[in-house]
Amino acid sequence: MVTKSNFNHLYWTLTQQIAHHTINGCNLRPGDLLGTGTISGPEPESLGCLLELSWNGQKSLSLKGATRKFLEDGDKVIITGFCKVL
């Protein structure tokens, strides 16, 4: 795992993002997918992208025997998530 963050760290709530998206007449229909962008948290291990984690490419990260500052050709990225029903 490279990073772990939480939806609670978003600057704008999902409701605010939807309002901003639709206020000027942009259609939003069931099944549409919205991207929130990078979600970075307050702790170093919750930074949301390699650019932040590598301090703009100034330091390398150890990943399963390899070191990276940025993604390279052939690298695989797996993104997982879940939703709790309250």
Strand % is 5-15%
Helix content estimate:
10-25%
Instruction: Sum up the overall morphology in one term.
Output: elongated
Strand adjacency order, main sheet: 1-2
End-to-end distance: 27 Å
How would you state the average pLDDT, rounded? 87
Order of helices and strands: HHEE
Q: How much is the radius of gyration in Å?
A: 16 Å
Instruction: Describe the main β-sheet briefly.
Output: 2 strands, antiparallel
Count of helix runs: 2
What is the number of beta strands? 2
SSE class: alpha+beta
Explain what this protein looks like in three dimensions.
This protein is of the alpha+beta class and 86 residues long. 15% of the residues lie in helices and 7% in strands. It contains 2 helices and 2 strands, in the order ααββ. It has helices at 14-22, 50-53; strands spanning 61-63, 66-68. The chain has a two-stranded antiparallel ribbon. The protein is elongated.
